[in-house]
Amino acid sequence: MSATSENNKRIAKNMLFLYMRMLLIMGVTLYTSRVVLQVLGVEDFGIYNVVGGVVSIMAFFISSLSNVSQRYMNIGLGKQDIREVEYAFRQSFTLMCLLSAILLLLGETLGLWFVYNKLVIPPDRTVAALWVYQFSLISVLSAINQVPLMGSIVAHERMNMYAYLGLFEACARLLIVYFLKVFGTFDSLILYGMLTALVSFITWLLYAIYCIRVFSECKLRFYWDHSLVKDMSRFIGQNLFGCFAWSAGIQGTNILLNLFFGPAINAARAISVQVSAVVTRFTENIMTAVKPQIIKSYASGDREYMIVLIVKSSKYAYFLAALFAIPVMMEIEFLLKVWLGQVPEHTVAFTRLVLCESLIGVFIPPLWIAANATGRIKNNQVYGRMFTLAILPISYLLLKVQQDPMIPFFVAVVANIGYWLYCLYDIHVQIRLDIRYYLKEVVMPGLFLSLILCSVGLIQSLMIPEDTFSRFLLVFASMLIVGVCVVYRLLSEGERVVLQGYIQRVCTKLKK
């Protein structure tokens, strides 16, 4: 069997584990979000999210370090050099510890001052907010030190373990909800922050135990190689600006909304982000499965296979995301009423705009991974991320003119389109990706599917104007059935043959 066929099978297997993980976490998140909102209330729910956002801004470098860690370990594995993989892991671990100390110092000085003096928090909830801030710091510190461990798991493509830890996280979330209900006399906001921090720490511990036992290169020992640090620092430096711009655009918007409109608006935004996170997970699962192969194919000099992976992962990710996001956008008002019962003001409009932004964002990760593989990420992460960084100042200026909470969401959609197009041009220059081929194979099928889904949903909504459960089922089912049929027709002949063979194998196993 060819190496390409083996790689494709490995990608498919890893995607299966990741989607099982996603469905489990998604189901638990939908349930726990409803209960947490009911227990905390709209105001406390908003406080938790905006305070956590302050910590997230200070920890903007987590994504950058994760990408660097995975890249160097993937390259070492691509060369089959275990010693290089070990050095990359230990150097990443050392850098994480150093940055954790810096974050702790900043968090207990500048961050604490900002939460106490600048955020709009009711006076009677200030103490609870400060406790939540401390617990959020613990959660983020656990996430930082988890980076090289997760990088090792992804580099080795052990997605089954990734799925099992997702099972633990899902069960832990359910336990948190149970404790919130049982200990009703305790301050629910403080308790929620404490339990979330505890789960984050235990998750890090489980990752550490697994990696140390399974991977020989995973040794939690300090290591410093000046030449390696210099090489990684160049890569990290360019990555850092991109991560800062992303964090400022996302979490900065959250803080901006708090300053102009108060914590209730933060609750509405938090709910919309949770819904859009499902779309993001569709993309993340495909990208997590395909990322090692893209980097390894570049390291081995197989540019053609690299381009095939970029195009196909972009197309499949958008198809899967659109089949979920567009029906949800059409019926979001009914879904939120059923899901939450109490729907904060502006949540419906926020969710539709955030889903639009997420659908556009689906096209970006494969292009970013390609730049990550080549190591030439300056254009992508510095110049391209100017679009994302611009969200904050432009939103601030427009809000000064007119105080409409929708403004930052419209700005984010436009910025995402600009960033995607810039990334596409950058990869075209770097690896000679044919833009017309990309538009034909990725964008046009995606637009066609979106138009069909929107048309079917709109026609049925006009035919059945009553907002009932039967209408929801009819509209949702019709859009999914038509969407799946359209996706099938949009696949190439070879892709349809592979899909038919996979379905036949699954049916054969089920009959046994």
Q: Could you outline the blueprint of secondary structure elements for this entry?
A:
Elements lengths: L2 H56 L2 H18 L3 H36 L8 H30 L3 H24 L5 H27 L11 H36 L1 H37 L3 H28 L1 H9 L6 H15 L2 H11 L3 H6 L2 H4 L1 H11 L5 H25 L3 H29 L5 H22 L2 H19 L1
Helix pairs in contact: 1-3, 1-4, 1-5, 1-6, 1-7, 1-8, 2-3, 2-4, 2-7, 2-8, 3-4, 4-6, 5-6, 7-8, 7-15, 8-9, 8-11, 8-12, 9-11, 9-12, 9-17, 9-18, 11-16, 12-16, 15-16, 17-18
Provide a descriptive summary of the structure in words.
The protein has 19 helices and no strands. With 512 residues, the chain is an all-alpha fold. α2 runs parallel beside α4 and α4 runs parallel beside α6. InterPro entries: Poly_Biosynth_Transport.
Number of helical stretches of at least 4 residues: 19
What does the largest sheet look like?
Answer: none
Number of strands: 0
Low-pLDDT residue spans: none
- Give the end-to-end Cα distance, rounded to a whole number of Å: 26 Å
Provide a short characterization of the protein structure:
It comes from Parabacteroides distasonis. The chain has 512 residues and is an all-alpha fold. Helix content is 87%, strand content 0%.
